[in-house]
Specification:
Among the domains are: 49 residues, no CATH class; 101 residues, Membrane-bound Lytic Murein Transglycosylase D, Chain A; 106 residues, Distorted Sandwich (Glucose Permease (Domain IIA)), CATH 2.70.70. 26% of the residues lie in helices and 21% in strands. It contains 10 helices and 19 strands. The strands form 6 sheets. Strands 9, 10, 12, 13, 14, 16, 18 and 19 form an 8-stranded antiparallel beta sheet that branches. It has a 3-stranded antiparallel beta sheet with strand order 11-17-15, with no helix packed on it. Strands 1-4 form a two-stranded antiparallel sheet. A hairpin with an 8-residue loop joins strand 9 and strand 10.
């Protein structure tokens, strides 16, 4: 018995027992800390399991809030991340098939590929053209080239010319060359005489700067020219386009000078009108209506003291107010066929470039009565009505009197 007991006792496995203090090995300390940690967690779980009904809702809500907060932090971080790539791209013609899965991809096309492509690693068992087509269908978005050249505006180096085209006006030409309309007018005697009456094919002088283009006459000096156009002699002498040499700045008869900032007085055109007796009852109301339906193609400005209303040829032209016809016929000052209605109250209205005239001189007309048809006679670049309002001979802005 005793022998058996001793044999049994001796046959039991023995576990090493050690104390951290007696065994300085790091594994001993690790074993002790792990065992105590598991013991502490087990006790904590056991204590909290009885109260799980009370703390579980708090844990769930806290977890949800923490999840939302973490997603927001990750999103903000990704939005501020600058992703760069060092892959060099090269251009190759890779697609040689005519279709792929029912999609027409053409016989060949040029796409961008990385020089060190890894498509053969991602799709090792597919034919080469499948790999190339798959890459072409899923290649990165590339910036489309814009083959447009922006030509900067450069200053003109001298005086140039421009040929009037259909539909041109003095204002439109001035805007094209970044000048004031008065500069176009004061550079050409023909336009100065009738600035609103251009002709197709007419050659217009274009100055490099705003001002007046003056032809030197006998007896002209810098002082007299400067006084005429309300500038100083130094302004003319300092203009680089005049090529005047100091100290005397000699002038030659017939030469042209640019007067920067110069001005000329306005001279209205005069048309001889009816001087007979006024028909009885032919008096206006002082309230004007639009003489034709259309679009304003040129407004009122210093050199064009009227408005141009574009309309188809033959459109009816109406008397803007009652009165009598003081002129009806052809003019030699660029108006072409012209009708003037005197309203016998200081006002008179002009209707120019008509294709047809339906009234005669001395005839009484009523407000809105048809007096002519829109045309392009005289100095004109297209069908329109040139409409003026004059008060005791002084040209007014028609827009101030029209509804």
């Amino acid at each position: 018995m005793n022998g058996n007991r001793r044999a049994t006792a001796m046959s039991r496995p023995s576990f090493p027992s050690f104390s951290p203090l007696s065994s300085p090995s790091p594994w001993a300390w690790f074993y002790l800390l792990i065992s105590r940690a598991f013991t502490w967690l087990a006790l904590l779980f056991y204590r909290l399991s009885d109260e799980r009904r009370s703390w579980m809702p708090i844990v769930v809500r806290s977890s949800a809030h923490l999840s939302v907060l973490m997603i927001a932090i990750i999103a903000v971080g990704l939005s501020r991340m600058d992703i760069q790539t060092d892959i060099a791209w090269s251009t190759h013609t890779v697609i040689k098939a005519t279709s792929y899965n029912g999609m027409d991809v053409g016989k060949s096309t040029t796409v961008a590929q990385p020089e060190h492509s890894t498509d053969h690693l991602l799709l090792p068992n597919r034919p080469t053209h499948h790999v190339q087509i798959a890459y072409a269908l899923h290649r990165p978005i590339e910036r489309q080239p814009q083959p447009h050249t922006v030509i900067p505006e450069r200053p003109r180096l001298g005086v140039i010319t421009y040929t009037v085209q259909p539909g041109d006006t003095v204002q439109a030409i001035a805007a094209r060359f970044d000048l004031q309309p008065t500069t176009i007018m004061w550079a050409d005697p023909a336009i100065e005489d009738a600035p609103d009456l251009l002709r197709i094919g007419q050659v217009v002088t274009i100055l490099p700067v705003d001002g007046v283009y003056h032809q030197v006459s006998a007896g002209d000096t810098l002082e007299s020219i400067a006084e005429k156009y309300k500038v100083t002699p130094e302004d003319i002498a300092a203009c680089e386009y005049n090529h005047l040499s100091p100290p005397d700045y000699a002038l030659t008869e017939g030469m042209y000078l640019i007067v920067p900032g110069g001005e000329k007085p306005y001279v209205p055109k005069i048309v001889t009108t009816y001087t007979g007796s006024v028909p009885e009852g032919a008096r206006g109301t002082g309230r004007f209506i639009w003489p034709v339906l259309g679009t304003i193609t040129q407004g009122y400005w210093y050199g064009h003291r009227a408005i141009d209303i574009g309309a188809p040829t033959g459109s009816a032209v109406l008397a803007a107010d009652g009165g009598f016809v003081s002129f009806a016929g052809w003019t030699d000052v660029g108006y072409g066929n012209l009708v003037i209605v005197d309203h016998a109250n200081g006002f008179a209205t002009y209707y120019a470039h008509l294709s047809s005239i339906y009234v005669t001189t001395g005839q009484a007309v009523e407000r809105s009565q048809v007096i002519g048809a829109v045309g392009s006679t005289g100095w004109s670049t297209g069908p329109h009505l040139h409409f003026e309002v004059r008060y005791y001979g002084a040209q007014q802005n028609p827009r101030a009197y029209l509804p």
